[in-house]
């Protein structure tokens, strides 16, 4: 498994998030007092506890596997353009402990949004403002309210049951969990020979230029702490987005952990990716990032404002009452 040990980033986050539901009620059992006790009586409206230790609210017990329970909340962002036939399969693999699912629709004409809402009414549906997968992810990130953000494709090629491995890596200390079809037990039954070779070349290039150890730059299954959105400062519209995020994560000094992943062929429909066109776009992004010496932590501390300067950033067309969460 490739592991890039880089200095810890100091980059700040994306601001305060509103509280989220803690997942299914049966998973939300308080188990004990967390944090240090207060001795000042603050927070006790009766004043009766003044002078006595005051505990913080109980934390929530959220098991994500037989061996692990976590406190951070998890958003899953799914870019989807005409994936109505695939969305039921994608949703079916999502773990029950995921707090928020954000589906970013790319002006689908096949009823993708209706299918998503019918199967999972609490899904947050975002209408992307522009075009392309990068644009869709940025709009999805802007809608996320959780501590951890996971990105997964909507074509059924990736398995949501692997999310636990990404989240485990993050809670164990990684800043950015990068899915890889070519690390350790990872595999792809989807990628063509041409694209496999192109991907390998791009990996070699990036690893040489930025001192990284990536094995799979162009893969859509990734996870990171939301507080590092500013460090990655996504500002590209297309399929080059994963490469850009990977380079910027490295430039920002994030701790990067690759997670082996299995990619199956997309279930229905056809790919939106063009090997030549998108390969060139990825190459351009790599060169641009090399020329730009500045570290990303100094820029775009508010990446969401890049969406549509001066206007409302995203259009959330359905989802839970955002004020109440
Ligand atoms: N919202 C939105 N989603 C997109 C856009 N382009 C691609 N997607 C989604 O991004 C995911 C990945 O796109 P794919 O077309 O499967 O591309 P790929 O996985 O890189 O290539 P294949 O391996 O050939 O499938 C899918 O869920 C697409 O529906 C877009 O412009 N807008
Ligand atoms: Mg695909």
Molecular structure report:
This protein is α/β, with parallel strands linked by helices. The protein has a single domain, classed as Spore Coat Polysaccharide Biosynthesis Protein SpsA, Chain A (Alpha-Beta Complex), CATH 3.90.550.10. Helix content is 26%, strand content 16%. It is built from eight helices and 14 strands. The strands form three sheets. The protein has a nine-stranded mixed beta sheet, sandwiched between helices. The chain has a three-stranded antiparallel beta sheet with strand order 2-3-4, with no helix packed on it. Helix 5 packs parallel to helix 8. The longest helix is centred in the middle third of the chain and has 18 residues. The N terminus is likely disordered. The site of magnesium ion has 5 residues, from loops.
Write the element-wise H/E pattern from the N-terminal end onward. EEEEEHEHEHEHEEHEHHEEHE
Q: The CATH topology is what?
A: Spore Coat Polysaccharide Biosynthesis Protein SpsA, Chain A
Task: Give the overall form.
Answer: globular
Looking at the overall shape, the CATH architecture is: Alpha-Beta Complex
Helix content: 25-40%
Annotation, overall tally of beta strands:
14
* Count of the separate structural domains: 1
Q: What assembly state would you assign to the polypeptide chains in this entry?
A: single chain
User: What are the segments in which pLDDT stays under 50 over at least 5 consecutive residues?
Assistant: 1-18, 23-49, 295-313
Distance between the termini: 38 Å
Sheet with the most strands, sense and barrel status: 9 strands, mixed
Give the strand order, joined by hyphens, for the main sheet. 1-12-9-11-8-5-6-7-14
For the record, what is the CATH homologous superfamily label? Spore Coat Polysaccharide Biosynthesis Protein SpsA, Chain A
Rg over alpha carbons = 20 Å
Mean pLDDT value? 81
